[in-house]
Amino acid sequence: MTGVWQEAAKLTQALLYGDELTCVFCGGEHGVICPTCTSNYLHPELKRCRKCGKLILAEQRHCLDCEAGRGPQQLDQVTAWGHYAGGLRKFIQSVKFQAHPRRIGAIARPFSDWAISQLPAVDGIVAVPMHASRLAERGFNQAEVLASALHWELGLPILQGVERTCPTSSQVPLSRQERLNNLKGAFAIRQPKAIQGRSVWLVDDVTTTGATLEAVAEILRANGVQAIYGLCLAAGLEKKLVPLCD
Ligand SMILES: [Zn+2]
Ligand SMILES: [Zn+2]
Which domains does the chain have, with CATH numbers? Predict the structure, then answer.
């Protein structure tokens, strides 16, 4: 295509799709997620640890934590779109803390396409629930917004009925074991019939130790869910990998 036609095509696309030519992570040009951000945060060259979703080297089977038995046990597989760092971390934080849930719309297509390429098709989606007090404070649950995006893109039903009964404090400074203890009894199932015998994607924004996914998966399992696949926007990077970008 000649320069003039390239410009015309770009302009038409911009008129049709609004900001879709602007990278959601860095604000630069060259697509919803530009090649630089794809390489810095989505790391297509790295594998995901099947047990916890962490980004690992292609030759690793699991991450070091999961090899040592310190990973989730209740999920059939966990995967994460990218590394929780730099532009992807800023994006997730702006969605959550600056109340920009609509920004999820910008990544709905690439995130959904990626999810369906990584995980088996399922009966429905379960969002990691948020306690009512936190929901009242924030106004929305980012995991539910993600679940809605997947629902719109892929047509998968959203399965309701899991709730968070305890307002757990911030998990950030805690170890995996402390997080697990903190989350014991934090979730309940209101409508077991809605999920019995089903296979689900369990969706959250970020996973670090896998403790939250594990706690929800445990109660899903106890209520008859057959297959549980954890799906997150972002996860940590294997310890032995030098941080590639932050
Ligand atoms: Zn970018
Ligand atoms: Zn792992």
Answer: 47-235 (3.40.50)
